[in-house]
Amino acid sequence: MANLERIYTIPLADAFEYIRTKRCRRAVKIVRAFALRHMKAEEAKISEGVNSLIFRDGMQKPPRRLKVRIVKDEEGTAKVWLIGEQESIAALAEKKKQEDEAKKKAQEAAKKEKEPKKAESKQEGAAKPSEGKKPDAKPSEAKKPEAKAAASPLSKPEAKK
Which residues contact 36 (CB under 8 A, 6 or more apart)? Predict the structure, then answer.
């Protein structure tokens, strides 16, 4: 059995004969029954795009008709897609895959740059002693502030008479 693909316009006017709060649920059932009947399939799966389009205006106001693409695969499952939805999903998946690959390359490059720096810093740390205190210096020999020769402004020498 080969893949069978067709484009249909599904009328959803019958959904408006039901209670207001159950119209979208009924519309989904109509779409599923339509796909089973026209594709002679055993099971029908509705895509997220179709479902979100049905519920777009709220549960009480489904669209009057849907233009969809129904694909029957080899297992006898009919999949209901919006026209162009499957291609856009594939394009988004490809774009995401390329972004993930670029991220991985950037992370690997950053990792390679960090590894030599870490190795160099370990070698430098082992070769150089700590520069905080010199072993020759004694704490008592620390520099003391020198006495200032200039007098402070508060103690001015008075002028001679």
Answer: 42, 43, 44, 78
pLDDT number for residue 151? 54
Global pTM reads 0.58
Contact 80, 40 (CB under 8 A): no
Q: Which residue has the higher pLDDT, 138 or 38?
A: 38
As to burial, measured by CB atoms within 10 angstroms (0-12 exposed, 13-18 middle, 19+ buried), residue 63 is middle
| Residue range 4-83 in CATH 3.30.390.30 | no
Q: Distance between CA 75 and CA 95 in Å, rounded?
A: 29
Contact 12, 27 (CB under 8 A): yes
Domain boundaries, the chain: 4-83
Label residue 134 by pLDDT band (50, 70, 90): low
**68-88 average pLDDT score:** 90
Longest dimension (CA), the chain: 127
